[in-house]
């Protein structure tokens, strides 16, 4: 039995509907969704906070636990694994407050808390 040949991309026929002009043009790509006011949207701000903090700390964020708009842009709480341990519930986590300007650029960060992953918040 012969091996199946890989699928080959088909070329557009010159007999296709329309004159073909403009069909191969690439759409312009937006780097980050923006609000109509020119500010970065919540989803883009969340990604920006995690990515930029990762660059500064050299560790990948585990999650973004909160995000809120401010007068100057956005403020996020980003959770980061600072020390991996076995079992996973004993890993040391840190919560960072990250401030972003209205364009989604990180302007400050601060570690606000360290805790073990298995620790449950208790009401105060």
From TrEMBL:
Per its UniProt entry, which superkingdom is the organism in?
Bacteria
Q: Where is this region: Disordered?
A: 1-43
Q: Name one Pfam family in it.
A: GvpO
Give the protein name, as stated in the record. Gas vesicle protein
């Amino acid at each position: 039995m012969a091996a199946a040949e890989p699928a080959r991309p088909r070329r557009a026929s010159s007999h296709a509907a329309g004159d073909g002009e403009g069909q191969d043009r690439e759409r312009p790509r937006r780097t980050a969704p923006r609000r109509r006011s020119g500010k970065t949207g919540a989803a883009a701000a969340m990604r920006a906070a995690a990515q930029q903090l990762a660059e500064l700390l050299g560790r990948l964020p585990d999650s973004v636990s909160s995000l809120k708009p401010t007068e100057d842009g956005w403020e996020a709480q980003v959770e980061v694994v600072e020390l991996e341990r076995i079992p996973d519930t004993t890993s040391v986590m840190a919560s960072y407050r990250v401030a972003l300007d209205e364009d989604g650029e990180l302007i400050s960060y601060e570690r606000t808390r360290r805790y073990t992953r298995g620790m449950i918040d208790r009401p105060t």
